[in-house]
């Protein structure tokens, strides 16, 4: 899978329709820090409208939306908090148990949502208890900071970002279920070899 391009100073991320209900991300030169917005082009790395537009179109469980919103809320990008933060801006300090408590959801719901957002390249695990949300989608920072976060993402082989179509969550769930059934069927077909019980050796009498 190709790595995401580095968005350098004077460039922006834009999204165009692929004509099939999805979006294609690209990089374009910009003047200053303007946003792209038209019938054909929409989105910029700092454009929350694009992300909310995508989230508003996805037919996914409400629990997934809860988890994503909580992750975004935990991604504190305020420079005033730099001295007090536990992780660098652009990263989130949390884990499954923490998200479960914050969202008041079951372990299964949080786990499924986390796996989905990791699958579509919206987040990755930087290390245990530390998540990095995709800097192309979520983090507002200077061009130098953006370049730094993007390099960290690419250096860690972060997944390419997918802007999914409305029914993709359902398709992903079905594919996962099919994989589980196939794995279970393969496990059942495995040949079971019964080991013969060894007879106790009789010692010759003296």
How would you describe the overall organization of this protein?
With 206 residues, the chain is an alpha+beta fold. The chain has a domain at 58-184: Arc Repressor Mutant, subunit A. It contains six helices and five strands, in the order ββααβααββαα. The protein has helices spanning 48-57, 62-74, 96-103, 107-119, 143-155, 168-189; strands spanning 11-17, 23-29, 91-93, 123-127, 130-133. The strands form two sheets. The chain has a three-stranded antiparallel beta sheet with strand order 3-5-4. β1 (11-17) and β2 (23-29) form a beta hairpin.
Question: How would you summarize this macromolecular structure in one to three sentences?
Answer:
The protein has 206 residues and is α+β, with helices and mostly antiparallel strands.
What best-fitting shape do the alpha-carbon axes yield?
elongated
CATH superfamily of the domain at 58-184: Winged helix-like DNA-binding domain superfamily/Winged helix DNA-binding domain
CATH topology of the domain at 58-184: Arc Repressor Mutant, subunit A
Largest sheet: 3 strands, antiparallel
Q: What's the total count of β strands?
A: 5
Strand order of the largest sheet: 3-5-4
List keywords for this structure.
206 residues; Arc Repressor Mutant, subunit A; two-stranded antiparallel sheet; 5 strands; 38% helix; elongated
């Amino acid at each position: 899978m190709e790595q995401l391009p580095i968005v350098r100073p004077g460039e922006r991320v834009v999204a165009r329709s692929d004509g099939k209900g999805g979006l294609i991300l690209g990089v374009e030169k910009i003047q200053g820090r303007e946003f792209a917005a038209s019938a054909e082009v929409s989105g910029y790395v700092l454009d929350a409208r694009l992300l909310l537009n995508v989230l508003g179109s996805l037919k996914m469980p409400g629990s997934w939306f809860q988890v994503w919103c909580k992750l975004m809320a935990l991604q504190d990008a305020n420079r005033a908090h730099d001295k007090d933060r536990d992780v660098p801006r652009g990263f989130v300090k949390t884990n499954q148990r923490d998200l479960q408590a914050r969202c008041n959801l079951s372990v299964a719901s949080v786990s499924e949502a986390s796996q989905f957002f990791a699958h579509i390249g919206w987040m990755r695990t930087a290390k245990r208890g530390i998540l990095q949300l995709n800097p192309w989608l979520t983090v507002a920072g200077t061009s130098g900071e953006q370049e730094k976060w993007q390099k960290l993402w690419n250096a860690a082989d972060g997944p390419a970002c997918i802007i999914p179509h409305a029914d993709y969550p359902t398709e992903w769930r079905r594919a996962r279920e099919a994989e589980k059934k196939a794995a279970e069927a393969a496990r059942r077909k495995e040949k079971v070899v019964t080991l013969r019980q060894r007879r106790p050796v009789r010692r010759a009498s003296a």
